[in-house]
Specification:
Strand content: 5-15%
Helix content: over 70%
Shape: elongated
Number of helices: 17
Distance between the termini: 88 Å
Order of helices and strands: HHHHHHHHHHHHHEHHEEHEEEHE
Radius of gyration: 37 Å
Number of domains: 3
Number of strands: 7
Length: about 500
């Protein structure tokens, strides 16, 4: 016997469900994407259930490999973090700071906290390098390169001030954390504590809170991903189980169909033999009735068994549909959450402008486009003049309002193709595609004049601010670092010339 129309319809519906479910796991890894694509091709070509089952088994193995790989990566991350902490703990540090690092070492769980420590270490190293150039011995150089005859750790700690670069780095980290739900209450007073801190030991509590926040965020993300992978694996296993049931059902159906065919043929042959040897009409009638009743009984038993099996498959298919729907909902939720997290991670929470990380990404894109097409591209660095005076005289609330007003104005005045980001503190950076140095100077001067004319009124208190800008254009074989360095030098030249100015700087001519 051939497959029934109902069975064919159920099998087709199952294959559609499996094909849709295969999109859920896309993007986790390239080998898994390839395996899922092959599964959809097999379903599209209507290959045998056995072939599809083998492909499902292959996908299940790859999912388990992903889980194993994730566990291995977590171990590697812990080792990386341990290496960073060991490097810091090997240094001659103040006792309080060393105790803090040891507590961090006990709490290590993820690479995020290691990134936090690395960023702090980078700031310290940058400060040490600047002190060498100025031939000045400060606390950070003594922490990492103490020489005989220098002050003791306690004397250095009490005497020296915290470097500005370190404070700026910590404030940038706080800005990023404040954009993530659940951390605002924890870190709302940290900026004030950093601003008021005078000694390194004043930052110990800040470091502990920041590290704990990064560890918690990383842990939550890992747990969500792990939970989703486990759920996905279970549902893939459920599909695999259902496929196995379908394969077994098809095999059993063919076997029982062949058995019924043999039994019916035997019954018909027996009926023929009994009829050929009988002449009595009554006896013929009785034999015919008995044989037909036996045939009908066998057919009924076969149909009842097939109906029960079909109902079981229908029930399993419905459950599979529900699980597929739940998986699709979970996938949509995770995608939306990921998009929201990415947006928060790339947005400055105070001004709403793209942040430094978003700037780095856009800079790479524009730089690659410039190298390919060699269209004009200018980079601008701007800084609000005397901004510290605004904070000191009017308070940080007024300072935040000034940053917001200036940021909103500059963004509204730029073209759609231009890019502006808050680089840190009161500093902004702009990318102006298809704009030469001369045109950029004209545009930025107009921007500078507009900022100067802004009326900033907060609760009846009025204030005016000005900005200084430095501009440089990508030329020859420029790197992004070289162009930014020139723009930064031009900005400081504008500051030294009296502020509220625009200065530009070209690359030095290449030596022949």
């Amino acid at each position: 016997m051939s497959d029934t129309p109902q069975n064919n319809e159920q099998q087709a519906e199952l294959m559609r469900c499996i094909s849709r479910l295969s999109f859920v796991g896309m993007g986790l890894s390239a080998p898994l994407d390839t395996a899922l694509k092959e599964l959809r091709n097999q379903i599209k070509k209507q290959e045998s259930p056995n072939s599809i089952k083998k492909q499902i088994d292959k996908i299940s193995r790859k999912l388990r490999q992903l889980e194993d790989k994730k566990s291995s990566l977590e171990k590697i991350e812990l080792n990386q973090e341990l290496d960073i902490l060991e490097q810091l703990l090997d240094r001659t540090l103040p006792k309080d700071l060393k105790r803090t690092l040891k507590r961090i070492e006990k709490k290590r769980r993820s690479l995020e906290s290691a990134k936090l420590i690395a960023s702090i270490a980078d700031s310290i190293e940058s400060y040490v390098a600047s002190n060498k150039a100025e031939k000045r011995s400060g606390i950070m150089s003594r922490l990492f390169k103490r020489q005989d005859g220098e002050l003791t750790e306690e004397e250095s700690l009490n005497e020296s001030k915290i470097p500005t670069a370190l404070k700026i780095s910590l404030v940038n980290l706080i800005d990023q954390l404040s954009s993530i739900e659940g951390n605002r209450a924890r870190i709302q007073n940290l900026s004030k504590k950093i601003d008021e801190a005078e000694k390194t030991e004043d930052l110990i509590e800040v470091l502990e809170i920041l590290t704990g926040a990064f560890i918690d965020i990383s842990g939550d993300e890992h747990r969500q991903l792990e939970s989703f992978l486990k759920t996905l694996t279970k549902r893939i296993d459920r599909v695999n189980e259902f496929l196995s049931q379908t394969v077994n059902y098809n095999q059993q159906f063919r076997t029982e169909s062949e058995q019924l065919d043999d039994e019916l043929k035997l019954s018909v042959n027996t009926l023929k033999d009994s009829l050929s040897g009988t002449t009595s009409l009554a006896e013929i009638k009785q034999n015919l009735s008995e044989k037909l009743e036996a045939i009908v009984s066998k057919v009924n038993v076969f149909c009842e068994h097939q109906l029960r099996t079909q109902n079981q498959l229908n029930e399993s298919c419905n459950k599979l549909k529900e699980q597929l729907s739940a998986t699709n909902d979970e996938t949509t939720r995770l995608k939306d959450e990921l998009a929201a997290q990415r947006m928060r991670a790339q947005t400055d929470p105070l001004t709403g402008l793209p942040n430094r990380y978003s700037y780095n990404e856009r800079l790479t894109q524009e730089y690659n486009r410039w190298r390919r097409y060699r269209s004009p591209l200018s980079l601008v660095v701007g800084d609000i003049d005397y901004f510290k005076t605004v904070n000191d005289n009017y308070g940080h609330e007024m300072g935040d309002a000034v940053l917001q007003k200036v940021a909103n104005f500059m963004q509204s005045e730029l073209r759609e193709s231009d890019f502006i980001a808050r680089y840190g503190g009161e500093e902004f950076v702009l990318l102006l595609p298809e704009t030469s140095l001369i045109d950029a100077t004209k545009a930025v001067n107009k921007l500078r004049q507009g900022v100067k004319e802004l009326n900033i009124d907060i609760d009846g208190r009025k204030i005016r601010v000005a900005m200084s800008f430095g501009i440089s254009e990508f030329e020859n074989n420029d790197t992004t670092k070289a162009v930014f360095g020139r723009a930064d030098e031009a900005l400081y030249r504008a500051k030294n010339k009296g502020r509220d100015q625009v200065c530009c700087q070209r690359a030095k001519p290449a030596k022949e």
